[in-house]
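Deviations from the work plan: none for this task. Representative record:
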Amino acid sequence: MKDKQFWSVAGIIFVLFMIYWFAGHPYFVSERGVMFWSILIVGGVLIYSTRMAKRGEKIFLRTIPGLKAVEEAVGRSTEMGKPVLYVPGIMDMDQVETVAGVVVLGHVAKMTARYETSLNVPVSRAIVMKAARESCRESYLMEGRPDLFHDDMVHYLTDDQFAYAAGVNGIMLREEPAACLYMGKFYAESLLLAETGNSIGAIQIAGTASPSQIPFFVTACDYTLIGEEFFAASAYLSQEPELIGGVKGQDYLKILAISVMILGTFLNFFHDLGWTSWDFLAYLTVQ
Amino acid sequence: MEKFLDFIVRAGSLDRRIIFVVIALVVILPLFFPLGLPIRPTNSSQDVYNAVEELEAGDKALVSFEYGPSTKPEIHPMAIALLRHLFEKDVKVYITCLWPDGQFMAMEALEQVADNQYNKVYGEDYVLLGYRPGAEAVIKGLVSNIRKVFTVDSQGNFLDDIPMMVGVNQVKDFDYLFSASAGYPGTVEWVQYAADPTGVTMSTGTTSIQVNEVMPYVQSGQIVGILGGMPGAAEYESLIGQAGIGTSGMDAQSVAHLVIVGFIIFGNISFFVERRRSKKY
Amino acid sequence: MFFKRQLPIAIAATIGFLTLFGWFVDEPTIKSFVDDDATQWFDILASFAMFLGALNLLKMQAMKVMKKQKGWQYAALAIAGFAFSFTAGFILLGSYNVEITEFDDPAKVATVLASEINLDEKSTENVLVAVPEGDPYIIETPYFTKNGADNVVEQINAAGGTAHMRATDWGAHISTRGSLFNWMFRFIFTPLSATMFALLAFFVASASYRAFKIRNFEATLLLISGIIIMLGRVPIGGSISAWFILYIVVLALSAGVNTWFKNKTYTLASVVGGVLIVTIAGFIMGWPVDQPAIFYLPVLQDWIYNNPNVAGARAIMIGIGLGIFATSIRYILGIEKSYIGE
């Protein structure tokens, strides 16, 4: 959408919304207003950053060693003639981390297609299998190597957490992949996978937003993408200005969140002292 | 001396199978020869105990089982200890399961505590509503209308035919909420969709790994107390004065932790010797 | 191309907008869609997708067996396991109860029943006599096969009693104690799952042995806090005196003095001085195990859990929350299209 069109559409939506708002906003759950406005602000900031990036604004994206190492890991596998193992977590597609894992898989599949390296993706959910398969197929097609793609490179093992861990560990010990990538949502199986990967001497890169599993991955893997880094992976690997703009937007949002936290601390302090009657924390608590 | 240092450096690259054998031994031996170490409850376990103590006979507690056979050794002891405490105080217990295998765990715990130990009557003192798929959607449903999610209990009885379900329509009708959780869906979802919006007092029991993820909710007061893994279960057992599996596992865990610390210290000595040598040459 | 590009993005955007903004709308239809229908749709889709998964699993394993690939024996075991679970879940319910409604002559019925409930005839007769009048007696352990239950029924009827066979309802057999599926869950699945989880203990030991090295200041902090948590969390930590920790602190500080000044006199002075101060203080205070509290492991552990840990966890959670939010918005707005391969 061009700038003129974009602002016209945004302006119309804004005017319509204002009319609705001042007409008494029927059907609107007023107690959730804070959340609503927050979403609008966050959405607005992200759209703004994306559009700025599209217009050619230079954006600095710091080097993320873990992502830089992905290509290195695929290259190493190629040299050694061993496969790359990719684990997209143990949850379904309703978890954003799994979606992010499938997105990164697309980029990894492009690399394996380019280097003609074999890729093995065991999954624990049938829907993830379909999505991951499509993602790989597209990547191989885009790299001009549809001949190297076959459906079974993405295969289903089981829904059960530890049975899946046992299955993946079995694959690792039998096939001895040179690179193991864990990108998605993980629970207690994280260390079982990462330690087994370590024992076969594979280069290991993990990415997750599961706070309790980050220490395990940090301990047993060569590189770990922590939370936001993982979500920024797609932008980093694709170098698409639209996506990089989104990452910058995230930074703006972080500044905003920190400001609200500092402001909230003061306002709450004043409220506790009885200087103001406005309970800022109660206002922010969405029911 | 040089030979000794050589030995330390060589031992530094210890085969992990040796570590496995040592850990297996130190876990097994205390189970046969208990040390009887004293158990000191932490503040978070004490908070759970106090929250249950505040309940009165006839109050209603909703207990959710969100764990399976794999995490049973960590969560099951605390679920049993909590049920013992609740039945001891004649609190009415309502059980839901967000994990399919949670229902099997709940059945086992109820058989042991409600049937065999306290001779409680099904439908009057406790009810097992069972498992429903849908994770957060189930919690949201329970918050708005229990009968929308459960028309029958786990045994196929209509909810309206169960005496203790009379007047119980939504989460707000409960006096206490406990989530015995080993992951997703679990504690965090109960806080976000049930405890916070309704204001019902909630406590939780989780695996040791999850404690740091749940701790922010405990510190902010959204969760009243947390039982962390097997130590949490042992502490709760000591608080209610009924030693169980948690207590018997504490000696093994204590010795295992001590041995791991020993390994870490030994590994560091070896690391230092090696580093010094490499600097020297 | 439309079905592979525009349509998926349009569906993601529409449903995304609806579920996101539906939360702010007080309209029953939208509310019910957001709260129930949307998630149920996903569950239904996921349930059907299970067939795809199961077929794929079978295909992969069967190919392995046929091509005799490395580890094909495990593949054969996986297929056998699948077949067994399928049979136990869908075909052989394995939960048939025998109900004895009439036993006018308990002694005769006991001759048959005794072997079924593993008691001698006299005790079995007593059990039957103790049953309240009018109530049936149900053999507690169900039979795996219909034939097995029918045989017992026939034998009891022949012995002068009246017995019936009752099969557990389809579906309820899964949670019925004694059914084939339940047996499989309790005696195969449970120990196997617990074994996999228990492996964590060994892996934690080997991983920490390898990774917890004093490489720099941060690693040292990690190591010290790790040891405090490990010991303070278990009862043995409570038995370690705060004075013992104080002595270790004195030695550690002296090591610091040695590194800093590289002077043996200073080092010796700090060791001797520190040990003397701690010892005198100990004698004055009477060596209580948990005093001074800041050197008592359980207290230290509590503090680390509640302060530095929570601070870090909150920061990571907020970052992750923002990341999830931004990513979701990117999908809804169609900025991120990599999930369809673009």
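Chain B has a mean pLDDT of 90.
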